[in-house]
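TA notes, week 10

Several of you asked for a full example with nothing omitted. So below is the full record: structure tokens for the whole chain, then the designed sequence directly under it. When grading your own attempts, check the secondary structure regions first.
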């Protein structure tokens, strides 16, 4: 059948080819997407690395090996190493409970999981200051036991835990709900216990979704600024993470060093993006 539509106008035949119009629309949309991608992603990335290397390789290396920079890198990695496993355990437990069981308060639990998405990170940081600061609710008990939360590493970890809380759970909940309960029920009918069912049936079925959630959680943990900025106190060499160290260098007009440290964070983000893409591909391949 001829893939053409013929319209009769005033004495003339006008032929419209839908396939050609569709191809033109597709290429226009692709061009617009590529333009915005280059404008808001590729160009800023090029600017970061260009500014980082603007004063030479020696200054770039010196900025990354500076004592304060190394301290910020170590603290960022430490925070991520603590926050990501804890959120992985919570996300697995919460998603398994919500997807596989019915109980009172289920909607409340879902709302609490989504709370960090609704609350500004700065507000979250102020909340921890209100609770654990020198004039906070728990200040007398903390002072009596010589425990320091705010303006110290524990406060940074708590703030990071809060803002990264939903990522693993929100990635796993729809996946486990879509898988249903049939395989778990079959395993239990064959005599498998709860933990055996979890480790041999549930976990293998959601491993790629779990990895995807961990990647997102780790990316947010390393790049978090607002909540960490409030609770850290900006103590150089002690409570500055990589984003906070970049801010300090930039405010001191040390632009080359600021962009050098920022380029490290950019590289970590690009690596995270590659691993995320591989996880998505593996997940789709499994399906």
């Amino acid at each position: 059948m001829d893939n053409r539509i013929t319209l009769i106008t005033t004495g003339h035949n006008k032929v419209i080819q839908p396939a050609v119009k569709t191809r033109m629309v597709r290429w226009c949309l692709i061009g617009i997407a590529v333009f915005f991608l280059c404008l808001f992603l590729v160009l800023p990335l090029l600017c970061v690395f260009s500014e980082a290397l603007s004063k030479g390789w020696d200054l770039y290396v010196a900025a990354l090996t500076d004592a304060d920079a190394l301290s910020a890198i170590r603290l960022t990695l430490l925070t991520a190493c603590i926050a990501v496993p804890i959120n992985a355990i919570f996300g697995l437990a919460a998603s398994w409970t919500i997807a596989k069981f019915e109980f009172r308060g289920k909607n409340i639990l879902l709302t609490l999981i989504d709370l960090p998405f609704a609350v500004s990170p700065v507000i979250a940081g102020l909340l921890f200051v209100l609770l654990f600061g020198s004039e906070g609710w728990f200040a007398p008990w903390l002072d009596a036991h010589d425990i320091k939360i705010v303006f110290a590493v524990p406060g940074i970890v708590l703030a990071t835990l809060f803002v990264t809380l939903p990522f693993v759970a929100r990635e796993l909940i729809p996946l486990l709900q879509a898988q249903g309960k049939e395989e778990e029920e079959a395993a239990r009918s064959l005599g498998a216990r709860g933990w055996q069912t979890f480790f041999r049936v549930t976990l293998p079925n959601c491993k790629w979704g779990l990895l995807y959630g961990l990647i997102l959680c780790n990316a947010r943990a390393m790049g978090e600024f607002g909540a960490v900025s409030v609770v850290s106190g900006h103590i150089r060499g002690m409570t500055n993470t990589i984003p906070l160290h970049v801010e300090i260098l930039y405010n001191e007009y040390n632009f080359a060093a600021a962009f050098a440290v920022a380029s490290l964070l950019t590289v970590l983000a690009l690596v995270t993006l590659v691993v995320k893409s591989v996880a998505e591909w593996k997940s789709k391949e499994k399906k």
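The CA atoms of residues 6 and 15 lie 5 Å apart. Use that as a sanity check on your answer.
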